[in-house]
Design a protein that fits this description.
13% strand; Arc Repressor Mutant, subunit A; 5 helices; alpha+beta
Length: 109
């Protein structure tokens, strides 16, 4: 985390962002947006959720600045605000992989 002082206020902001990522459906939406901008309807079709559900998740992701939105005629198009969120996913995947290997070694005894 570099040289930032982790004040209670900053820790609260960090926790809010992690809370937004704690929902698998939101991670699925973010991963789908890697393909490019999409409307709520396009996202709903791509992830297999209802439009109302996707819209609700997009509101949370937008509030936490994980996605941007722009008006396109009658539609609102959503896009990733910052691809660095996937660095967090990659870190966690690496950690899960290491833990899985360690568990397999324990079970192989």
């Amino acid at each position: 985390m570099g040289r930032l002082t982790l004040t209670p206020e900053l820790l609260g902001l960090i926790a809010e962002r992690f809370k937004a990522l704690a929902e698998p459906a939101r991670l699925h939406i973010l991963a789908t947006l890697r393909q490019g901008e999409m409307t709520v309807g396009e996202l709903a079709t791509a992830v297999g959720f209802g439009q109302a559900n996707v819209s609700k998740h997009l509101q949370v992701l937008h509030a936490q600045r994980f996605v941007n939105r722009r008006k396109d005629g009658l539609f609102v198009r959503y896009a990733l605000a910052d691809r660095s969120v996937f660095q967090l996913c990659d870190l966690m995947c690496g950690r899960i992989e290491a833990e899985t290997k360690a568990r397999r070694k324990l079970l192989a005894v």
